[in-house]
Amino acid sequence: MLMVVIVEETRLVNIGAKPVEDYVFETILIFQEGSSTVVLKGSGAFISKAVDVYNALVSRLGDSVELVKVDIGSDRFKGRFKSFIAITVRKKY
Amino acid sequence: MLMVVIVEETRLVNIGAKPVEDYVFETILIFQEGSSTVVLKGSGAFISKAVDVYNALVSRLGDSVELVKVDIGSDRFKGRFKSFIAITVRKKY
């Protein structure tokens, strides 16, 4: 019996202090390397930037990028709770 | 024929410059007034604060508040595109 297992790798892009365009390019590069799913994660003040990165990605890639889901919540960070957003996007073709 | 139409009112809370707790109280007040669904909307830098308000609301109300959906995108504002988040929450009981 031959089993073919296709592993869909999900890659994480941590949104931080770099310009929005840097994260857009990083995500496009990940898509070009063959991963179809990317999670854009931002914490605290970088939550807003994570949404900026998503919008810039959509404006650049158009219909070929699909919003899978948006998770929000809080992570424990240095003993305090910090809000986060995790935006899962998928490259369609 | 008697028709009973139940209108579920959805109320909008625009997240701006006020402290997080103010928006939490505003949302709880809306729930107490009988509306079960509230949309927390934040634009630009207030996106992060909208998630803070959601987390503070969950930590205060616990299981009785439910996350319905999270929408992200961009709105045209003064000729420019501005990122937004719209967090829909529902009071369960």
From TrEMBL, chains A, B:
Annotated Gene3D superfamilies: Alba-like domain
GO MF term (any one): nucleic acid binding
Domain (DNA/RNA-binding protein Alba-like): residue spans on this chain: 13-73
Residues that span the membrane, as ranges: none
SUPFAM superfamilies tied to this protein: AlbA-like (SSF82704)
Name this protein carries in UniProt: Nucleoid protein Alba
Source lineage: Archaea, Thermoproteota, Thermoprotei, Desulfurococcales, Desulfurococcaceae
